[in-house]
Design a protein that fits this description.
Mean pLDDT: 85
Radius of gyration: 23 Å
Low-confidence stretches: 178-200
Strand content: 15-25%
Shape: elongated
Helix content: 10-25%
Oligomer: single chain
Distance between the termini: 56 Å
């Protein structure tokens, strides 16, 4: 059982649920109607709360999850912690936030730094970034020394995450234990308070109808030769500001294959050729429209080969972060490497007034592409 519940229900897999915007009695009765009798319940600070079994232990065949949307009518909010989604496999807790009957935000404690989903995956991103639980500084890099054990600070990181959520929503305690503010060994990054990057520059980083790969750690001769040997000779190439780059006509190659090659260049397949591991970092950019096919609408589902993600950053053979740009697509992303700049630029977040003031804001993704270029210091390939 997670320490932030004070081991109150040992041996049980329980959910901790908060609701506001509806009478407490209606909330508790709604749980009972779904065969979840509260093991504990109460009211405080405008919230009703209950702890109930994750599954209906009275019925051996009832493994249905609670439909919290039914408990969340128009104007109501429900916050859920699934503390033991699978204790047999020691999976981390899940978190969900419902508003007006819809799932606004959902994530697992195991991979919340890589992906969050819902109507607005960035509903809490400003608070999570300010607390140092997401963003570049939140990723532990010490494991690479072969000695460090990340499990030594997992409890402190989990407590920081729960404390941040509780503070953001003003959740009462009890039922939450008094959450200590034990510092994580990962330092909290500064909060972004001003726009980041010179987004007003007119020159595009990548031309329309073009795929580009920027690489650092190797020179342009090495990059172009590796691409040619893989069957993708570059149309143009260049080198500037510490980056080598190559481009292709999008009509001549398949974007999915080129973006995959960009990831391969940073991994073990090219270690010997480039003189060792972790030498190369790449940024793939696409000047083609975002994929509109059914699978392409979901960021964690493989896109069709003709429509790669419009931005992908790779190191160590893995895509650290990737997403499409424009019209709010940045919320459907993998990874938070650019969360500071995207929040500061009004691209993502709980409040995005730029979109409300101008429905056409960043429609073509040019603002986001400029943020990407400024973050990495990419030279233009046009």
């Amino acid at each position: 059982m997670t320490t932030w519940l004070h081991d109150t229900f040992p041996g049980r897999e329980v959910n901790l649920v908060f609701a506001r915007g509806l009478p407490a009695g209606v909330f508790f009765e709604g749980l009972r109607e779904q065969n979840r009798e509260p093991l504990a319940q109460g009211e405080a600070d405008g919230w009703a709360w209950a702890v109930h079994d994750m599954i209906n232990e009275a019925e051996d065949t009832d493994y249905e999850e609670v439909d919290y949307g039914r408990l969340c009518p128009q104007g109501a909010e429900v916050v859920v912690f699934v503390t033991e989604p699978c204790s047999a496999k020691a999976h981390g807790p899940h978190f969900a936030y419902y508003r007006d009957g819809r799932t606004t935000l959902f994530f697992s404690f195991e991979d919340y730094r890589q992906q969050r989903v819902g109507d607005n995956p960035d509903h809490l991103s400003a608070e999570l970034f300010a607390a140092g639980v997401i963003g570049p500084a939140a990723e532990c890099e010490e494991w690479k020394d072969g000695v460090h054990d990340c499990s030594e600070h997992e409890d402190a990181d989990e407590l920081r995450l729960v404390r941040t959520i509780a503070d953001a929503f003003g959740l009462p305690s009890p039922p939450l234990a008094v959450l200590p503010r034990d510092p994580s060994p990962l330092a909290a990054p500064p909060v972004a308070t001003e726009p980041v990057g010179t987004v007003g520059e007119a020159r595009p980083v990548v031309a329309p109808g073009t795929y580009a790969v920027h690489a650092r750690g190797i020179d342009v001769t090495e990059l172009a030769a590796a691409c040619a040997d893989a069957g993708y000779p570059a149309r143009t190439q260049g080198e500037s500001d510490g980056w080598a780059w190559v481009t292709w006509d999008a009509a001549a190659v398949r974007g999915g294959e080129v973006s995959q090659l960009a990831g391969f260049l940073t991994g073990f397949r090219y270690d010997e050729r480039f003189g060792g591991p972790d030498r190369v970092e790449t940024v793939f950019l696409s000047g083609t429209p975002a994929c509109t096919c059914p699978n392409g609408r979901h960021y964690s589902v493989q896109h069709c080969e003709d429509h790669p993600f419009q931005f992908q950053n790779s190191r160590g053979g893995f895509e650290r972060t990737y997403f499409n740009v424009g019209r709010g697509r940045e919320t459907q992303r993998h990874g938070d490497l650019l969360v500071r700049e995207l929040l500061a630029g009004g691209i993502i977040g709980r409040e995005t007034p730029a979109y409300e003031a101008d429905p056409g804001f960043n429609a073509d993704g040019a603002v986001t592409m400029r943020i990407i270029a400024d973050h990495f210091g990419l030279p233009a390939t046009t």
